[in-house]
Structures are given as structure tokens and as C-alpha cells.
Design brief:
InterPro entries: 6-blade_b-propeller_TolB-like (IPR011042). This is 6-bladed beta-propeller. The protein is mainly beta and 401 residues long. The chain has a single domain, classed as Neuraminidase, CATH 2.120.10.30. Helix content is 8%, strand content 36%. The strands form five sheets. An eight-stranded mixed sheet has the order 18-19-20-21-1-24-23-22, with no helix packed on it. Strands 2-3-4-5 form a four-stranded antiparallel sheet, with no helix packed on it. α3 packs across α4.
């Protein structure tokens, strides 16, 4: 597949791929773990797209996107095409190729959260339902390509909201301790009134309150709101602590517990003194923190919390990782580093970390929809694909032989 519109940090990834309670430590269980197994598949045919990505599904439709062309494809559940439309250029509802992966309302409308153009909602046939301004201009974007959920449509107090994150910047200002103390990390947009508010400060005990400067991507939040029990789960990309909030009715979320996760191969950044950096260049590459460990997805499926993360090198290993990136490593070193760099998913069950075996996946990413996990079959290496297969499956314990 011809992919030509992404960035240096993505290139590195592709090369290396193949508070109110005490924080408590957890360790990997010595058992057989979990696995994701396919229960069904759907193939869509005759697709001409530069970056064709599965996005979402409901009882009636499958939704795909050509991210390089701001183009949406809608199929029925048998894989037959229904709608195909593009929103780019000088047209109502235009959105950019860096818009978040698509979410759906209960009515089946498509929600697009775009940090450059703003919020859009479309019917499946492409009719524009809502167009709203961007909440605040953003100076950075997601670096990689995946199909993980980036935001969430929720029902609360009889209203429909979009939960999304502020991404990287509040306003152009001096960065210091006060910046992190005042920052609110999540956005909540009423899809009827379009009113947006910021909430969720850094919790007490978070490293981002310790007076150091961090790359922006370190404190990008991932989250999941469980409506039935009014509980919000939240984690920051380079801080492996799961924060759990009680979020009742109109009240502000209240932090009820937190758990530090011992993720194999995950290395936290310690932060820098503010005088070493200036606002606007706080990215890992610019701060010479290559290959940062990063949590990429947080989901809840049944009683299991799923966390997908990207390992990174310790300070002493960065030179070897750089040799692999530049193609200067011998075969043994290359294989060693590629194994260490493999992205991983863990299941958190009753506070215990359990490994999860993943089937081969396009861009090592999946989408949780209800109690199912959806993913794309990897594309061909030697030819440009026109047929794409999506699997749906379940998470189950690995059965001992």
C-alpha cells in the first residue's frame, strides 16, 4: 500500500515494529494469559485508497476511511458498498487527514473530531448534521497510524456528549509548574448545544506536578467512561498509572483509586528543568528523547481493562535502537531490538496484569466495539491491496494443552 503522508516519528515506529488512594504495585501473573481469537470476518472489495482504515461498526454498517483523502466508505454488514463520500477542500464539513478515528452516535451518525478544523457530525450518506469550530488551535498531532479509539460518545443526564482530549496545548504561554497545575486534560462537548468544557486536572501524585518539563505526548490522556457504573478510567501516555474516577450525574469526577502498572519494557521520562527548554518545542524528538515508551490505547471489555503500549529503550539502550533505525546493526542486534520493540497488550483483571496474545493486525491496532474486538488483516507486502478483510473476535483465556 502506498503511504506517503506521515511523519518521522511514525517512520521510527514502523521500523521498530515487526488522588485519593495509595498507588499499588502490580506484577505479571505466571499463567497462560489471554488471547484474541477471531469469530467472524468481513471482506470489502475493489477499494482504491492510499490509507484505507477500518474505523467503526454498528448493527447496520461498517465504516472505513481513506485517511489520506478525508474520504469515508460505508458498507452493510455483509461488506456490500452503500455510501462513499469525501470532505476536503472548500466544502461544508471539510476535515483533515489528521482527524481522530471516527466515533458513532446511538443514532448511527458519524462523529469526526479534528484538532485543525473542529467538530463534525455526518449522517452515513455524508449529509452534514453538525459543524462546529475547533475548540482551540493545536500545534501538534498524533504521530502514528492506528485504528484505536481516540474519543468517546457518551450519554449522561439525558444528553449526548463527546469526550475528547485537549491534545497538546492550552494556549501559547510560558510553561512552568503553574502550567501543569492549571491544566485540564479532557474536553466534554455537548453535541446539541455545542458547549465545550475542560475538566480533569493532573491527579495528586502525578509526576507532571513535580516541577519538571515533559514532552507534550507524555501527558496526552487516554480514557474510557463506563456509563453503567458511572466510572471513568484514565491514563497518561508516559505515566503507567491507571486512575479511576467516580463520575456521578452532574458532579465533577472524583478520584477513587490509582494503580501503578509494571509494564515490561516501559520506560518513563524523568522530565527536564524548565530552563533547558522553551515552550513550543516540547516534543520527544526535539528534546532528544528518541523512541519514547507510550501507552496507545485504554479500553474496558466486560470486567477486563485492556491497555496497549509501545515499549521503549532505557537510556543505555538508545544507541542500539538508533543503530537499528539507521540500518547499521548486525543481524543479532537487530533481532534483539525488534523483539524488545514489539508493541504489547495487557489485560488488567482485579488489579493483576495478564499478558494478551494478539493475532497479526494491520498497524498493530484494534477497535473495541461492545464486547467484541475488531481488527484489520495485514496488507500485502509485495503488491497494492484492493481487497481488505476485517475480523471480529473475542478475548478469552489461553487454554492449556
Amino acid at each position: 500500500m502506498k503511504i506517503y503522508l506521515y511523519f518521522f516519528s511514525l517512520l521510527i515506529v514502523l521500523i521498530l515494529k515487526g488522588c485519593t488512594s495509595n498507588q499499588k504495585e502490580s506484577s505479571t501473573l505466571a499463567n497462560d494469559g489471554y488471547e484474541i481469537v477471531a469469530t467472524d470476518s468481513i471482506t470489502v472489495n475493489n477499494i482504491l485508497a492510499s490509507l484505507f482504515l477500518f474505523q467503526n461498526a454498528n448493527e447496520d454498517h461498517l465504516f472505513f476511511r481513506d485517511a489520506a483523502a478525508s474520504k469515508i466508505y460505508v458498507f452493510d454488514r455483509k461488506g456490500q458498498p452503500l455510501h462513499e463520500w469525501t470532505k476536503e477542500g472548500d466544502v461544508p464539513g471539510a476535515f483533515s487527514m489528521i482527524a481522530d478515528n471516527l466515533s458513532l452516535t446511538n443514532e448511527g451518525d458519524i462523529v469526526v473530531a479534528d484538532k485543525l478544523f473542529g467538530l463534525r457530525v455526518f449522517s452515513p450518506n455524508g449529509d452534514l448534521v453538525i459543524q462546529d469550530r475547533v475548540y482551540q488551535p493545536q500545534m501538534s498531532i498524533h504521530a502514528g497510524v492506528d485504528i484505536f479509539r481516540k474519543n468517546q460518545v457518551i450519554q449522561k443526564n439525558g444528553k449526548t456528549y463527546l469526550l475528547h482530549h485537549l491534545d497538546l496545548m492550552d494556549e501559547v504561554q510560558e510553561v512552568g509548574t503553574e502550567f501543569f497545575q492549571k491544566r485540564r486534560n479532557l474536553l466534554m462537548t455537548d453535541l446539541e448545544s455545542r458547549e465545550t468544557k475542560k475538566f480533569i486536572p493532573f491527579p495528586d501524585g502525578s509526576k507532571f506536578l513535580f516541577g519538571k518539563a515533559f514532552p507534550f505526548e507524555d501527558f496526552r490522556p487516554l480514557f474510557y467512561y463506563e456509563e453503567q457504573v458511572e466510572t471513568l478510567y484514565l491514563i497518561f501516555q508516559n505515566e503507567p498509572i491507571l486512575y479511576i474516577y467516580s463520575w456521578k450525574e452532574d458532579e465533577q469526577p472524583i478520584l477513587t483509586s490509582s494503580q501503578r502498572l509494571d509494564l515490561d519494557g516501559f520506560h518513563e521520562n524523568d522530565g527536564l528543568e524548565y530552563e533547558q527548554v522553551r515552550y513550543g518545542i516540547l516534543s520527544a524528538n526535539q528534546l532528544e528523547i528518541p523512541f519514547p515508551s507510550s501507552i496507545e490505547s485504554l479500553e474496558k471489555i466486560g470486567e477486563v481493562v485492556l491497555i496497549h503500549y509501545k515499549p521503549g529503550p532505557s537510556i543505555g539502550e538508545r544507541g542500539d535502537w538508533e543503530k537499528v533505525r539507521k540500518g547499521e546493526a548486525d543481524e543479532d542486534l537487530k533481532n534483539t531490538i525488534l523483539e524488545k520493540a514489539k508493541e504489547r497488550t495487557i489485560a488488567l483483571v482485579d488489579g493483576e496484569i495478564i499478558s494478551v496474545n494478539l493475532p497479526p493486525m494491520f498497524y498493530n491496532s484494534y477497535r473495541v466495539i461492545g464486547n467484541e474486538i475488531w481488527w484489520m488483516k495485514p496488507t500485502s507486502k509485495d503488491q497494492e491491496d484492493e481487497d481488505f478483510t476485517v475480523f471480529r473476535g473475542k478475548l478469552q483465556p489461553i487454554k492449556s494443552p
